[in-house]
Write a structure and sequence with these properties.
The chain is about 30% helix and about 20% strand. It contains 11 helices and 13 strands. The chain has helices spanning about 10-15, 70-85, 105-110, 130-140, 150-160, 165-175, 195-205, 235-240, 315, 320-340, 360; strands at about 1-5, 40, 90-95, 120-125, 140-145, 180-185, 210-215, 245-250, 260-270, 270-280, 290-295, 300, 310. A 13-stranded mixed β-sheet has the order 1-13-12-11-2-3-4-5-6-7-10-9-8. Strand 2 (about 40), helix 2 and strand 3 form a beta-alpha-beta unit. Helix 2 runs parallel beside helix 3, helix 2 (about 70-85) crosses helix 10 (about 320-340) and helix 3 runs parallel beside helix 4. The chain is globular. The two termini are about 20 Å apart. Residues about 1-15 have low confidence and may be disordered.
C-alpha cells in the first residue's frame, strides 16, 4: 500500500498539493458524482477478541500510543468533516471502540456540533452492559453489535474467547438504555454456519434486534481469504428461507450497504421486521457508496480496499493556526475523496488485498 504523507508545513503548501480539478467548495464528492455523507472513524486498532476471519490467535502488533490520534485531534477532524464537508453520519469503529476510555467524551463533543450528525457505533459488545446508559446520555443514536452465532461453542471457536454471555448482556443493555436502533452484524466464517443462521435470526426477532449478515471480505490479517470457501448472499438467503418467509422490502435502499427483506409474520417495535444481507463481494454496491474512513493513526481512506491513503497526522501536528489547519484538513480530504475508484475491484483478476486488515482500517 502507498501512504501519501502530505506534510503540510504551511497552509499554502497544502493548497499546492491539490490538483486543479478537485472541487474546493461544497460537499465532499468524487469524480464519479458520488457524495460522501458517512464517515467511519476508527478510534483504536486494538481489540479484545481474536475472530478467526479477522486476526491471528496471538493478535497483531498494535499501534504505539503516540501514533494514535488523540480525542482532541479526532474532534477537530470530525468538526471539519461535519461543518465544512457535509458529513451527516459519524460511525465510530475500531478495533474495538469500547476500549477507548474517553469514548463518551468524544461522542458528547460530536453531538454538540452545529448541524449535529447522526452518531452510530460498531462494537463487539464486550463491556457494553457497563456503558450503554452513558453512551446514550452522551449522544449515541445507533449501535451495531457483532455477533456471528448464538451457539456458545461456535462463538468461542470463532472469537477464541468464551464471552457470548457478555455480548448478549450488552445487546440487552443497549435496548434498555433506549438506543434508537440496535443491529446485529454477523459474518458466516464457514459453510457449516449456514445451519445456525436461522437460529440467529430467531434470536434477533425475539429480542427486537435487526440482523445484518455480511459476506466475508478479503480483509483478514492472515490474507487467507478464499473466494471458493466464502459463504455467499444467495446461500445465506436460501438458508434463512428454510425457516422464514422473506418478502421484498418496499423501502428504497438508497446508499445503505444492506439489501433488506421483510420477515413475514414478525414485527419489531410495531414495525415490520427486516433482515439484511451485505453482499460486498457478489453484489457490489460501489456505485451508491457514500462512505469515507479515518483510521486510528490518522489516515484518510476513500474505500476499504483502497491501495493509497492520505496521512493527516502530520497536518494535525504541524502547529498551524486553527483556521489554516482546518483549511489544510479539508483540502487533504477533498483530494483523497476525488481520487476514489469507481469500484473496489474485488472481482477483477488483478485485485490484490490491501495490506491493512479490517481491524486496522475500521469497519
Amino acid at each position: 500500500m502507498t501512504t501519501v504523507a502530505l506534510g503540510f508545513p504551511s497552509a499554502p503548501s497544502a493548497r499546492q498539493a491539490i490538483a486543479d480539478d478537485v472541487p474546493r467548495t461544497g460537499p465532499l464528492r468524487d469524480r464519479y458524482g458520488r457524495t460522501v455523507r458517512d464517515l467511519r472513524v476508527s478510534v483504536t486498532d486494538r481489540c479484545n477478541l481474536r475472530c478467526t476471519y479477522c486476526m491471528p490467535a496471538d493478535g497483531l502488533d498494535w499501534l504505539p500510543p503516540q501514533s494514535v490520534l488523540t480525542t482532541r485531534e479526532l474532534i477537530r477532524v470530525i468538526t471539519v468533516a461535519v461543518r465544512d464537508l457535509g458529513i451527516e453520519t459519524i460511525r465510530l469503529t475500531g478495533g474495538e471502540p469500547l476500549l477507548k476510555r474517553d469514548l463518551e467524551e468524544l461522542i458528547a463533543a460530536v453531538a454538540q456540533l452545529p448541524g449535529r450528525p447522526e452518531i452510530a457505533m460498531t462494537t463487539n459488545g464486550l463491556g457494553l452492559k457497563h456503558r450503554a446508559d452513558a453512551l446514550v446520555a452522551a449522544g449515541l443514536d445507533r449501535i451495531n453489535v457483532s455477533l456471528d452465532t448464538v451457539d456458545r461453542e461456535r462463538f468461542a471457536a470463532i472469537t477464541r474467547r468464551d464471552r457470548l454471555d457478555d455480548v448478549i448482556a450488552g445487546l440487552a443493555a443497549a435496548r434498555r438504555a433506549g438506543m434508537r436502533t440496535v443491529k446485529v452484524n454477523a459474518v458466516l466464517a464457514d459453510h457449516d454456519d449456514l445451519t445456525r443462521v436461522p437460529d440467529l435470526l430467531d434470536f434477533c426477532l425475539e429480542h427486537g434486534y435487526q440482523l445484518r449478515i455480511i459476506e466475508q471480505m478479503p480483509l483478514d490479517a492472515d490474507h487467507r481469504w478464499d473466494r471458493s470457501s466464502m459463504v455467499t448472499a444467495d446461500e445465506i438467503l436460501t438458508a434463512l428461507r428454510r425457516r422464514f418467509t422473506l418478502l421484498p422490502d418496499p423501502r428504497p435502499r438508497g446508499s445503505a450497504p444492506a439489501a433488506t427483506w421483510l420477515v413475514d409474520g414478525y414485527e419489531v417495535d410495531g414495525n415490520p421486521a427486516r433482515v439484511g444481507v451485505i453482499a460486498s463481494v457478489t453484489r457490489p454496491f460501489c456505485g451508491d457508496c457514500d462512505r469515507a474512513r479515518l483510521t486510528a493513526d490518522g489516515a484518510l481512506r476513500n474505500c476499504l480496499f483502497a491501495d493509497t491513503e492520505a496521512d493527516l497526522r502530520p497536518v494535525l501536528r504541524s502547529g498551524l493556526p486553527d483556521d489554516e489547519l482546518d483549511a489544510a484538513i479539508a483540502e487533504c480530504w477533498r483530494a483523497n475523496a476525488w481520487g476514489k475508484a469507481a469500484g473496489h475491484g474485488v472481482n477483477d483478476p488483478e485485485f490484490h488485498q490491501p495490506s491493512r486488515p479490517m481491524s486496522a482500517i475500521g469497519g
